[in-house]
């Protein structure tokens, strides 16, 4: 609620400038270069995920799907390192508000690859890919103020 008050009163703009200054200090790359590499890395991640989904229907495509989908999620996650810098990204990932989402997401990334290459369980790999998607979504919305509350409210409303 305080954040909403600050935004409405115009105080948020000053904080935004401070955040921009902190982001600019996070890397030796120029801001435009970091934004370009963010877009390239994020688009590459999406492309890998789509390619993996297309390969799912080929014979033996579950392995390729799991690998490309996991690489896509890792690339999308790594793309934010260009905006904030890797150390700041790691600090924010393991903040208490997104700690569980981060752990579940990273665990699902590893378990997907384990299910395909070591355990040879294709169905389990697909389940872990679905869990990857859900964990990545929950992790991503943790950066949007009040988004998790809204999702939980919608979810509980739909269930009742």
Automatic annotation (TrEMBL):
Major location category of this protein: membrane
Protein's membrane topology: Multi-pass membrane protein
Keyword tags: Membrane, Protein transport, Transmembrane, Transmembrane helix, Transport
One Pfam family named in its UniProt record: Got1
GO annotation terms (biological process): protein transport; vesicle-mediated transport
InterPro entries for this protein: Vesicle_transpt_Got1/SFT2, Vesicle_transpt_SFT2
Annotated compartments: Membrane
Domain of life: Eukaryota
One annotated Gene Ontology cellular component of this protein: cytoplasm
Transmembrane regions: 37-58, 64-87, 99-119, 125-146
Annotated function: May be involved in fusion of retrograde transport vesicles derived from an endocytic compartment with the Golgi complex.
Family: Belongs to the SFT2 family.
The protein's name: Vesicle transport protein
Organism: Seriola lalandi dorsalis
